[in-house]
Amino acid sequence: MHNDPKPSQDRLDPLLEELSSYVSYPPEFSQEAYTTATDCLLDALGCGLLALSFPACVRMMGSVVPGAHLDQGARVPGTPWQFDPVQAAFNIGCMIRWLDYNDTWLAAEWGHPSDNFGAILGLADYLDRNPNNPWTPGKAWLMKDVLQAAIIAYEIQGGLALANSFNRQGFDHVLLVRVASTAVACRMLGGDQSQIADALSQAWLDGGALRTYRHAPNTGSRKSWAAGDATRRAVQLALWTMTGEMGYRTPMTAKRWGVHDVMMGGKEIKLVQPLNCYTMENILFKVSFPAEFHAQTAAEAAIGLSVAIRDKLHAIRQIRIHTHESAIRIIDKKGPLNNPADRDHCLQYIVAVSLIFGKLTADHYEDQIAQDPRIDALRAKMQVIEDVRYTQDYLAPELRSIANRLEIEFDDGSPTQSVEVIFPIGHRRRRAQARPLLHEKFLANSNQAIDPQISEKLLQWWKSPESFRNLRVSQWMDATATTIAPSKA
Question: Cα(232)–Cα(122) distance, rounded to whole angstroms?
C-alpha cells in the first residue's frame, strides 16, 4: 500500500485552505472589533434607509416577479417586504451601497466591506424566523452572531485587498464581496471547513465583473447595485454547496484555466498577513460626505476654505489639488459628467461643490444642482497633482492615510492658505471624534424612511453593547421595518 501524497493537481489551493480554516476556526476577536462592527452595522442600515428616498434605487428592489413575498421571509429594512434569503440579500445589499455612503477599505484594492451585510442580515433573519430550517434547526440567531460574521467577512475582503489589485486588471472589487459573503454564508448554514472551501471555489470560478460601469464613458448606476448582486450570488452558492454540490480543488492555480492565469496575468493572489480582525479595527467611515472615499479629505479641505473664498469664485485663477496616486487613477475626471454615479466619483466635482456650497450631500449629485454653471467653471480651473509622500503613506500599514491638500490662487496672484487633511474623520485615528457624528448621521438618514421614535430606539440599542449583542436578529429586523412600501414612481 502506497502512502504517496495526492498529485499536486488534486491538492486544495493554499488560498482556499487558508480562508476556509480562518472561517471555520476564527480567533477570539477584540472588543474594539465588536464595537466597530456595531458602528458599521448601524451606519450601513442608515445608508440603506436613506437610499429608499431615491426612486432609481427602489426600482431595482422588491421581488423578482411582482407579489413574490414570504410570510416568514427575511425582512428588508424600511419596507414591509419579506423574501427568501437570496432575494433579501440583493435588496439589502443594493440599498446599503446605493449612495456610496457606507464604510470603505482602501489598499491595493478598494471596496466597501459593509456590502457583506446584505448576505449576513438576509440569511440570519431568515434562519431566525424559521427555526425548523434544515441547516441550523433550533438555533436562536442573535445580533452577536451577525457581528461575528461581519468581522470575518470584513477580514476576508480587506485581507485580500491589501496586496492584490484586481482593478489594475480591469475587474471590479465586488468580486471580493462575493468571495467573503460566500464563505460567511456557508458557515452560517452550518458548513464545515471542507464545504466552505467548496463554496469558495465556486465564488472564485464565477470570475470578476468588469469595472466598465465605474469609468467614463460608461459610468452608470450598475455600480450602485453590483454589490447587492454579489451578495445575492454568494448566498445562492452557499445554499447550493449545502445541498451537496461539488467544489473544485484548484480554481486559483490550475494552469491556463485558473484565476491566476486568466484574471491576474499569472500573478498569485495571496494573503500578506494572518487573518484576524485587522480590517474591522481599521475600517474607514464616511461620516460627513457621500463621496468616493479618496475624495473625503479633499471635500473636508474644500469646505474649510469655502467661507473665505465663496464671494470670490469669479476671481479664482487656479485650484491645485495635491493628492495620492489612487485618487488620480480612479476619480480624476475631466469633461462631461453624465449622471450622479459619474459625479460622486469625480474629485473635481466634489471639490467644486464643497467650495461653492460649503457642504456636500447626496442631493448635490442630482441633475438640478449639476446644472449650476459655477461647478464646471471651477472644474476647468483645477490641476490635480500627485504628492509622492501621500501615495507612500496611503499604502503604509501603520498610517493608511488618505491625504489631500488644496491651494487656491486668484487672478491678482494672491493665494489662499494651503489646507491639508491627512486622515479623514472616519479614520481609526479620528474614531472618537467620529462616533457622535455617526450617531447624528444615522438619525438623519434613518428618519427618512422609518418613524423617528424607532430610529431613536435603534440608536439606544446601539449605545448598549451587551443588550444589543444578545438581541434576536428577527426582533432587530422587525424594528427596522415599515408597513408602507417605498414608491417606485
Answer: 9
What count of Cα atoms within 13 Å lies in the side-chain half-sphere of residue 223?
A: 25
Helix (H, G, I), strand (E, B) or coil at 360: coil
pTM (predicted TM-score): 0.86
Residue 32 per-residue DSSP state: H
CA dihedral angle for residue 208, residue 149, residue 155, residue 332, rounded to 10 degrees: 50
* Percentage of the chain exceeding pLDDT 90: 87
Q: What is the pLDDT of residues 358-394, one digit of tens each?
A: 999 989 999 999 999 999 999 999 999 999 999 999 9
**Alpha-carbon distances of 435 from 51, 275, 288, rounded to whole Å:** 21, 26, 11
Give every CB contact of residue 272 below 8 A, 6+ residues apart in sequence: 159, 162, 163
Residue 444 and residue 41 in contact, taking contact as beta carbons nearer than 8 Å: no
Peptide bond into 55 cis (omega under 30): no
Sign of the alpha-carbon dihedral angle for 348, 113, 140, 79: positive
Q: What is the DSSP string of 391-440?
A: HHHHH-TTT----EEEEEEETTS-BPPPEEE-S-TTSGGGHHHHHHHHHH
Question: For residue 1, is pLDDT > 60?
Answer: no
Q: Which amino acid is at 427?
A: H
pLDDT tens across 311-340, in order?
Answer: 999 999 999 999 999 999 989 999 999 999
Amino acid, res. 13? D
- With 0-12 / 13-18 / 19 or more C-beta atoms within 10 angstroms meaning exposed / middle / buried, residue 135 is middle
Beta carbons of 458 and 438 less than 8 angstroms apart: no
Distances (CA, A) of 306 to 242, 364, 379: 56, 16, 15
Which residue is listed with cell 464563505?
A: 183
Q: Which three cell numbers stand for residue 115?
A: 456590502
Position of cell 485552505? 17
Say how far apart CA 175 and CA 172 lie, in whole Å. 6
